[in-house]
Amino acid sequence: MKRLDMFGLLKKDMDYIEQELYRSISGDDLLHETSLHLLKAGGKRLRPVFVLMGGKFGEYDLQKLMRVAVPLELIHMASLVHDDVIDDADTRRGQLTVKSKWDNKIAMYTGDFIYAKALEIVTQLPNPEIHQILSKAMVEMSIGEMEQIRDFFNTGQSVRRYMLRIRRKTALLIAVSCQLGAVAVDANPKYSRQLYRYGYNVGMAFQIQDDLLDLCGTEKQIGKPPGSDIRQGNITLPVIYALQDKEIRGPLLHELTRIHELNGECDVSTAISLIKKSAGIQRAEELASRYINKALDALSELPDYKTKRNLKDIAHFVTRRSY
Amino acid sequence: MKRLDMFGLLKKDMDYIEQELYRSISGDDLLHETSLHLLKAGGKRLRPVFVLMGGKFGEYDLQKLMRVAVPLELIHMASLVHDDVIDDADTRRGQLTVKSKWDNKIAMYTGDFIYAKALEIVTQLPNPEIHQILSKAMVEMSIGEMEQIRDFFNTGQSVRRYMLRIRRKTALLIAVSCQLGAVAVDANPKYSRQLYRYGYNVGMAFQIQDDLLDLCGTEKQIGKPPGSDIRQGNITLPVIYALQDKEIRGPLLHELTRIHELNGECDVSTAISLIKKSAGIQRAEELASRYINKALDALSELPDYKTKRNLKDIAHFVTRRSY
Question: Molecular function terms in GO for this entry (chains A, B) (predicted)?
């Protein structure tokens, strides 16, 4: 999966972050091997990019920013390994998952190890505010993960419930990435608040787009077979909207029940076709756009024209991306 | 399981810690339920006791000490829930485990939630040293847990390898509990170093005694069927010593292979008898005593006669306990 290197200026610093990510996971042989497997699978490194961008609003210091950027990417990675255990996923980013190449237990401890390594690096920064913000986000993330399990195949869930879940699961960590970049370099607190708002809204749009891609993308684009969410019973926004369509609701519920009964080990193309026939895709796209607009709005009170333009570009990229 | 309330003086403060432990786990309904189940199963609360004792060597402040004691007990609890997933354990402390009452996935996220809650509380303290010490210990713990998986049924492992594993798995967190109690109240660094040494050696003895109890205790005493370690393939010190006995080695290896082949779903009383016939139990007891002596030795440079006497009592309790 392609790293998000839209910005020539950041490339050198992002290369350094990448190198520090590799350095961070040294330890026991097996843990190093499983963590390396995860790192090599790549990723957009969206959180480190946001940290560095946030750092542009204070006295930019790569050493300080690295100690936030690397932990945030590690926390994201650790949550993915634990997610794969829950989702019983065999591939992610086009690579075998740790739980599939090794097993669930090794995946669980790999996640624990990566979480701990993240903390070891971030605690090198003396600012207690950073640790408080980060630990609160981790609590919310773990609640969001549990909510996801509980909502599997819950076809009665509201749009609001979906929003709360993706807020915890995705948006908060992205919000915190933007915010902590600024906090790490002692930026004006007004800026870090606006960056949080920007990140939160971009994060919401990002997850909606992720859920759309799972329905509309190709395996090559998304690194795993499309329809994975439906197979796992992860009821996403386009599905909730599709279930509100009187003509689609009946047959879609029928399909979802069948998929549930077969534990997702079946063809899901009928369900996907039904969703695409409804207004679900379009309505979800519209909501993602509204979040992007809110994100852009949050930028208005920030200085630094150039970094703002880059943040705008990322926001637009999020809803147009195909990976 | 009985709380370690040997000290009238600590009882009131330990009641407060207990109350804060219960308060700490509020959150999503299901996570609250699973965490509550864990808390209610009890435990000796050894780590909080050590934190409070460490706090006696500086300006004792229960509010500060709570913010170390509660997180340390939570980290211990979280590691136990994840352990139960690995060990496929149905009971612990005489109660059903989370993975058994709910399932492995819920146990995994319960652990993640409790880890995050621990961090949320400890980050209320501004002292970066505390966070650095704690995160390093968490990294080591997760490495120790992975080592344990890798050493399952490894009958060729050395005593040294066993020591390294229990150091990471148990002794470091106990060492850090003693140390951080002192650090939290700004005790003389000389004292916190000695407390670390005390805790480390008590922790080693504690784990050896735990492993002995698994072989020699009754189900009522230890809250789970004896021989659980052997069934899981966890090769403990008495077993390693027993394997050094020329007469015992052959039949014991044969039994361990049989248990491995049956995935531990069999009677292990022959193996236990063989170990008891060897000098393994006695030699392990002797080593535990040597660690206790080192722990007592570490106390010699500390002031406060009364707290020292209490710490001596705990050290002696560790090798004599039957729960």
Answer: metal ion binding; prenyltransferase activity
